[in-house]
Input
Amino acid sequence: MQDLKQRVVRGGLARLFGQGANLALRLGFTAVMARLLHPEDFGLVAMVVAVTGVYDLFTSAGLSLATVQRASISREQISNLFWINILVGSTLCLICVATAPILVTFYHEPRLFWVTVVMGAGFLLNSAGIQHSALMQRELRHVDLTMIELASVTVGYALGICLAAYGFGYWALVSAAIATPAVSSALMWTFGAWVPKLPRRGSDISSLLGYGGTITLNNLIVYAAYNFDKLLIGRLWGPSALGLYSTAYQLANVPTRNLTGAVGTVAFSALSRLQEEPGRLKSYFLKGCLLLISITAPITIFSAFFADDIVHVVLGPKWTESANIFRLLAPTILVFSIINPTGWLLQSTGLHRRSLWIAVVIAPLAIGAYIIGLPYGPRGVATGFSAAMTLWVVPHVFWCLHGTAVSPREFLLVICRPLLASVVAAVLALGVVEFCLNDVQFPLLRLTLAGIVMGSLYLTILFYVMGEKVFYFDLLRGLKDSLRNDQLPAVVR
Output
């Protein structure tokens, strides 16, 4: 454990840089596809993903997190978990085939049949690499995982763009979604240096299955809560409205989701290793939260203030209606960046059942907000969602952190500084843009200048007014130390 800090810092920064590259690829892919395809194409795929995304939660069955979270686990146990993942992936593939005619009937859209069938193949492809990824994560091989993720995403996006350019329409989006897990699993096998054995009896995996089952149920409830809006909009308002809403949601959520995934993956691995050391666990958790909020808060608030220019630059002029939806969803995305880290703490320390009960409460809250806003279209749904999540954030924090090594006061003190710095910097940047850059006619140039102004103001306020400079200098020192020591004790017997 002596070099855990160095490995965590190195892995965390590798993940952040990787997710930054992933974000650039995602935005580039979205920008190109938005110009090659129509909102209806995105809406058709979103109709399927709103349902098959639920199935995707069962692909890992929570067993990847179980592999990482356990203090000690044998190769035989991991092999058994691998074959369970393969069985689950095959079953989900068949369920997609059975679901296809149901979606056709529900949406009154015959094109969805083969889209659903083909998307089903992705479950089997993805399941083949789950335990390989979990082992690499357990061993804190986050640099390798980052390179594999970037390579697979690049291949998938390149294929999608080529097919879109040749007029394949929504099939370009489907192909990109299938190619990415196929390449990822192939690379996991190539660089994971592990070949599963045939399943054996006598290897106790009941506790692992129990943990994975709770996590899966938790994810299922959360996914249903956060995606029921798309199902309702698609059913009542049609594919074009859903295309506008889902694309705006994706564009608003991509930075936070990618960055949360980057920091969260490393944080979960580290916190799982520190379950018996509450002092170090609290320190690692709060530093991880500070790092995440320091990055996601200014991005989200900047996006809300300059939504029109962002949508115009990334999606193009035919997506203008998405700008207001994008802006209205910003509070929800900001709340996600605040509450998602609490899940790292609960799940890594064995409090996954509390996480499940919290999900049970969130679901009716979010769905009720959608229903209230649904008569007013996508904007109404976005407004209702953001209002509900904003009201929920403080009760969520107190419930999650009750009785843990981290107090709500400590957590809120950590996140309030970057949040306040982001708001002040965004207001000042908006003032500069309105008074000094109002005559700039090119949205990309205006957006770039506004970003430079806000970024400079934000870093100045955060480092010198809020006093966070020491934290980032310590982070850089930790990265330097990690380059000198790259050995970690084995954690798999």
User: Anything to note?
Assistant: The two ends are 16 Å apart (CA to CA). The chain has 17 helices and no strands. Confidence is low (pLDDT under 50) at residues 486-493.
